[in-house]
Design goal:
It is a single chain. By secondary structure, the chain is an alpha+beta fold. The protein folds into 2 domains: about 45 residues; about 40 residues, no CATH class. The chain is about 40% helix and about 25% strand. The protein has a 4-stranded antiparallel beta sheet with strand order 3-2-1-4, with no helix packed on it. A hairpin with a 4-residue loop joins strand 2 and strand 3. The longest helix is centred in the first third of the chain and has 18 residues. The protein is elongated, with a radius of gyration of 18 Å. The chain starts with 10 loop residues before the first helix and ends in an 8-residue tail after the last strand.
Length: about 100
């Protein structure tokens, strides 16, 4: 099965995969989460859930005059600015469109 930007594929299968990932993360961090108080544990679980359900896509950044693909997770947006996490640094030039050759 091929999954492109933003998902695709069987939604039920994707939900099952996310659920297994969540269970694995909870197992891996069980010792850590036992040290948290209830408020901290709720924030931890919310952040973990947000990470697992984030939309993923490919952006392109300009490196030495060439485009380089970067896999990112898309976060909050206000319509003008959008939070993304991935292999990006402040100051990277992101390609947002292209013009036809003149």
């Amino acid at each position: 099965m091929r999954m492109g930007a933003g998902g695709g594929g069987d939604a039920n299968l994707q939900a099952q995969i996310r659920q297994r990932m969540l269970e694995r993360m909870q197992q891996n961090f069980a010792e850590f989460t036992r040290l948290l108080d209830e408020s901290q544990r709720q924030r931890w679980n919310a952040a973990l859930s947000s990470t697992l359900t984030a939309t993923r896509t490919t952006l392109y950044k300009l490196v030495d005059g060439r485009r380089e693909p970067v896999n990112v997770r898309v976060g909050a947006s206000d319509g003008s600015s959008t939070e993304v996490t991935g292999n990006l640094q402040e100051g990277d030039v992101i390609i947002t469109g292209e013009r036809a050759a003149r």
